[in-house]
């Protein structure tokens, strides 16, 4: 461990940022470790993370201290109960700066109540030079992209800033960058690391679907149909009412299931997978409910039908995973690695550069947590 603190910037001060920042503040104070894949990654614990820079476009957050802005509407994630002093300690006095808009806010947001939807302030957008200067000035070690689903141009803008500033990043949304060969070439040329794309939750719908698909296939069943639908009432689900924005999300969620067939060389039946958001239900707030149905055939063609329901708090469910991702990047950077990290991406993201089985991804992460280089890392991430 070469630093006492990992300096983090967040793009998008929404529910996920709220849970991440509150979680770091609480865990730094209490020393808790549950909800983290590893309490210690290369010498770094949750308490070693601090937040030094943040961007948003909502006037209820821009210009406010980050420790205060995370509680502004339309954020609705549960409160962790972290004391104000502890929040201030991990936010280091960071203020929320005006971010670049591009396609970051869906037009239909303006038609919904302000307490439930994003609003756009009148401040001028920063340009690339401004962001790059900020990343350097605040000595940011890792940038976390928490833009809304469908923010293709905005996400690419911030990635270009990271490339120029040589800042590693976690891409938490289904804009396919870390998993894209063209972008990975740029990441390597910049000499930085990245993890992506599209964050998985600690125990969310996608990892449950993957585990079930793995189980069915490993037990020799033929999966004819796998359905996963999700509903919730936060801004993520409101944002995804726009069909044009949700397309990449559906692809990403279905990738998780399809990958387990691909790894084993098993064809996916026609129309055999359906995964994606189903409904925006304001009453639910940050509570996400996922429903699963798997139709399969077992020995002798005997039918097997599996139905299940999962209810979680959406934003806290992913915060611990991001804490892990940030630490993987910092350790990888200290080991002189570059490019898209395969194992940590497969463990923490829905669409990584290389899909893996759950146990294989875990083994890659455990090796990096112990500062050991696997064959995958030597092949893909050595200079």
Automatic annotation (TrEMBL):
One of its GO terms (biological process) is inositol biosynthetic process. It is an enzyme of class 5 (isomerase). GO terms for molecular function: inositol-3-phosphate synthase activity. InterPro entries: MIPS, Myo-inos-1-P_Synthase_GAPDH, NAD(P)-bd_dom_sf. Keywords: Isomerase. Its EC number is 5.5.1.4. This is Inositol-3-phosphate synthase. It comes from uncultured Desulfobacteraceae bacterium.
């Amino acid at each position: 461990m070469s630093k006492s603190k990992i300096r983090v910037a967040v793009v998008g001060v929404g529910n996920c940022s709220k849970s991440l920042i509150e979680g770091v503040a609480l865990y730094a104070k209490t020393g808790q470790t549950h909800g983290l894949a590893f309490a210690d990654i290369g010498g770094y614990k949750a308490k070693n993370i601090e937040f030094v820079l943040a961007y948003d476009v909502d006037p209820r957050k821009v210009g406010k201290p980050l420790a205060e802005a995370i509680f502004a509407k339309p954020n609705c994630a549960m409160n962790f109960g972290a004391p104000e002093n502890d929040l201030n300690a991990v936010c280091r006095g960071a203020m929320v700066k005006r971010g670049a808009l591009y396609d970051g806010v869906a037009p239909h947001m303006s038609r919904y109540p302000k307490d439930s939807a994003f609003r756009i302030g009148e401040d001028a957008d920063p340009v690339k030079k401004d962001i790059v200067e900020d990343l350097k000035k605040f000595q940011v070690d890792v940038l976390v992209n928490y833009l809304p689903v469908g923010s293709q141009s905005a996400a690419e803008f911030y990635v270009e800033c990271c490339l120029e500033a040589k800042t590693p990043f976690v891409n938490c949304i289904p804009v396919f960058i870390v998993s894209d060969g063209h972008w990975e070439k740029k990441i390597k040329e910049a000499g930085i690391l990245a993890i992506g794309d599209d964050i998985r939750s600690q125990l969310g719908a996608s990892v449950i679907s993957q585990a079930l698909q793995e189980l069915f296939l490993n037990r020799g069943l033929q999966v004819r149909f796998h359905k996963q639908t999700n509903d919730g009432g936060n801004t993520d689900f409101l944002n995804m009412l726009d069909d044009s924005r949700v397309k990449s999300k559906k692809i990403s969620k279905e990738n998780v299931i399809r990958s387990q067939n691909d790894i084993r060389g098993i064809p996916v039946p026609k129309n055999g997978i359906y995964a994606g958001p189903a409904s925006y239900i304001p009453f639910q707030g940050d509570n996400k409910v996922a429903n699963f149905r798997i139709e399969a055939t077992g020995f002798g063609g005997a039918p097997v039908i599996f139905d299940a329901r999962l209810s979680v708090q959406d934003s806290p469910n992913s915060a611990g995973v991001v804490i892990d991702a940030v630490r993987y990047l910092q350790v990888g950077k200290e080991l002189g690695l570059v490019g898209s990290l395969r194992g940590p991406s497969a463990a923490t993201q829905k669409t990584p550069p290389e899909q893996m089985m759950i146990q294989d991804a875990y083994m890659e992460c455990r090796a990096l947590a112990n500062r050991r280089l696997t064959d995958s890392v030597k092949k893909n991430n050595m200079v």
